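ok so for the tutorial part 2 we go from a plain amino acid sequence to predicted structure tokens. step 1 is just haveing the sequence, like this:
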Amino acid sequence: MGAIRRNTQVLWSEVVLAAGFWGRLQGLLGRSVLHDEQGLLLMPCASVHTWGMRFPLDIVFLDREQTVLACREGVKPYGLEFCRGAWATLEIAAGSIARLGIAEGQRLEWSSISTESTAA
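step 2 — the prediction. this is what the tokens look like for a chain of 120 residues:
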């Protein structure tokens, strides 16, 4: 689990990183909703499908430096989206791109959030 920031602003606080084959294959299938603070970061990934999805998504394609290459808003179920040169794909709730002002050229940063508690 991790978070995605733009500068110091946390945009999504519950982002799952899918870096393995099975995680990327499963994606968001089986989910009935994606909340505003949630996302799925697929890496490496330059294309996604929404076959079998139950809700529309916003999709952000990123390069290796996590710079936004392209944004796709309101991608409906049973679609296919791709971006030449993308290294990672961020799937987020529909409406997030407009609500947060995500645009090409912006740099986003994913960072892991430790789930371990520390003893006092």
